[in-house]
């Protein structure tokens, strides 16, 4: 089995296991599939603008939490066996008003063809045990001692994952063993929980207790992708499922969907065994997502400014967030994919049409082939494609039917949205002493902890855009 086949099998196995553990997840899958089928029937090919229906239906992202850099390094090795690489750095410690003492990355495929085969991704958080805003020196020492005694990932699973990474896959029984062994690592443990220790951590942060108060890790949520998240929210509510208060991320509006919208049903009370008898915990929930177009660095900067403007207007008016956000989006974001591209805000790739050569000849003739300066204004920097014709950039080629513009799907996450989902599913905000200074964490620290480079998603998308432009230039020059 090649790595993408291992990855697909791993995603299916986790989904099956999580469905058995959290029956409401099955309801979420069913409603997601129904919504997707209805959107496809209504909009046809346009519904598959950001991925085929087969990909969207199969798509999942998972979320797990670990306690130490060593545990992070080990889980990074397991995901590497499935062709999943760390992408992005997310600091959730200041992203919400609740105490969420973790930093995170997401493991996923990097190459476009690998994403198309199976885009399984796992949002992975690690506890920051030395952040004094949350943990004093005594609690840090006891927490690290507890974490140091546990083994989350058996040596045999790590060995098989390393071999799969080195060989690009595994054969026969070993492939099955890796999938089964890795899946078992994320099953909900039935080992008794020390209630006093768990409660002590819970008073600091429910997330910290879920990581450091138990002897194992587990899938915290498993997320299907839906084509109309507003409709899914309505249908789940109609079924009597308690959803969080709102959809996180960009608002619903008339223009192109960008980045990521997420929501979930609230964490369910699950029976757990404690050292002093039976009890229950609310730590796992059912999340669902709708993915949009990735943004460039300029687009992300605009997104941050729009969020700040939404906060300012809400503070002065008290109006609902979704209403204010849609207003800000209409004022600030281009209303079409083409305008988003022209403004340099959206991430796209480009490919030649079947009759590109003929269309290019017609375009050059119309613009005056003997005068390279004739016609339109100079091309966008970095987008000149036809040597000797600086007026022709990729936008002109798309307009003339020489090339086709294709959006790059946003494959990653948003710190504020992730923290918002976490916060919405917490019964207690916990404690954070903002008078103290937080411990520094960044992508460099994360790379060192993993022993692997953490990719920058914006840089990666820029690389995809440039590669497509180079390929297009070769085809039409």
Automatic annotation (TrEMBL):
Keywords tagged on the record: Dioxygenase, Iron, Oxidoreductase
Q: Which CDD domains does the UniProt entry name for this protein?
A: VOC_YdcJ_like
List, in alphabetical order, the Gene Ontology terms for molecular function in this entry. Answer: dioxygenase activity
Record's Gene3D superfamilies?
Uncharacterised protein PF07063, DUF1338
Which domain of life does the UniProt lineage start with?
A: Bacteria
**What are the required cofactors?**
Fe(2+)
Q: What's the protein name?
A: 2-oxoadipate dioxygenase/decarboxylase
Q: What is the lineage of its organism?
A: Bacteria, Bacillati, Actinomycetota, Actinomycetes, Cryptosporangiales
């Amino acid at each position: 089995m090649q790595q993408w086949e291992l990855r697909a099998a791993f995603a299916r196995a986790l989904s099956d296991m999580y469905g058995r553990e959290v029956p409401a997840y099955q309801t979420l899958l069913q409603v997601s599939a129904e919504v997707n089928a209805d959107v496809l029937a209504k909009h046809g090919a346009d519904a598959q603008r950001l991925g085929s229906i087969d990909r969207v239906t199969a798509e999942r992202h998972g979320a797990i939490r670990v306690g130490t850099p060593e545990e992070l390094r080990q889980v990074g090795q397991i995901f590497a066996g499935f062709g999943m690489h760390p992408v992005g750095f997310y600091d959730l410690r200041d992203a919400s008003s609740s105490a969420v003492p973790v930093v995170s990355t997401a493991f996923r495929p990097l190459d476009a063809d690998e994403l198309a085969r199976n885009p399984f991704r796992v949002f992975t958080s690690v506890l920051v045990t030395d952040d004094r805003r949350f943990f004093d020196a005594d609690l840090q020492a006891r927490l690290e001692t507890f974490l140091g005694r546990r083994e989350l990932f058996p040596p045999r699973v790590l060995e098989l994952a390393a071999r799969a990474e080195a060989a690009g896959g595994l054969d026969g029984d070993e492939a099955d063993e890796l999938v089964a062994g890795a899946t078992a690592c994320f099953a909900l443990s039935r080992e008794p929980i020390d209630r006093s220790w768990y409660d002590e951590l819970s008073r600091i942060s429910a997330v910290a207790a879920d990581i450091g108060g138990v002897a194992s890790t587990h899938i915290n949520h498993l997320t299907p992708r839906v084509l109309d998240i507003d409709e899914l929210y309505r249908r789940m509510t109609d079924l009597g499922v308690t959803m969080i208060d709102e959809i996180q991320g960009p608002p619903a509006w008339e223009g192109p969907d960008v980045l990521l919208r997420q929501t979930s049903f609230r964490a369910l009370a699950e029976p757990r065994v404690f050292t002093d008898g039976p009890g229950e915990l609310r730590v796992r929930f059912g999340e669902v997502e709708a993915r949009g177009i990735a943004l460039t660095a300029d687009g992300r900067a605009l997104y941050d400014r729009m969020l700040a403007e939404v906060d300012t207007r809400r503070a002065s008016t008290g109006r609902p967030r979704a209403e204010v956000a849609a207003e800000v989006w209409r004022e600030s974001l281009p209303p079409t994919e083409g305008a988003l591209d022209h403004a340099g805000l959206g991430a796209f790739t480009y490919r030649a049409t079947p009759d590109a050569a003929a269309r290019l000849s017609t375009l050059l003739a119309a613009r005056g082939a003997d005068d390279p300066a004739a016609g339109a204004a100079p091309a966008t920097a970095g987008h000149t494609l036809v040597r000797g014709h600086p007026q022709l950039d990729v936008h002109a080629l798309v307009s003339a039917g020489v090339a086709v513009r294709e959006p790059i799907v946003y494959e990653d996450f948003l710190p504020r949205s992730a923290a918002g989902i976490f916060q919405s599913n917490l019964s207690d905000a916990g404690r954070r002493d903002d008078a103290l200074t937080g411990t520094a964490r960044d992508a460099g620290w994360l790379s060192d902890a993993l022993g692997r480079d953490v990719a920058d998603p914006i840089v990666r998308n820029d690389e995809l855009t440039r590669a497509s432009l180079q390929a297009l230039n070769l085809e039409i020059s």
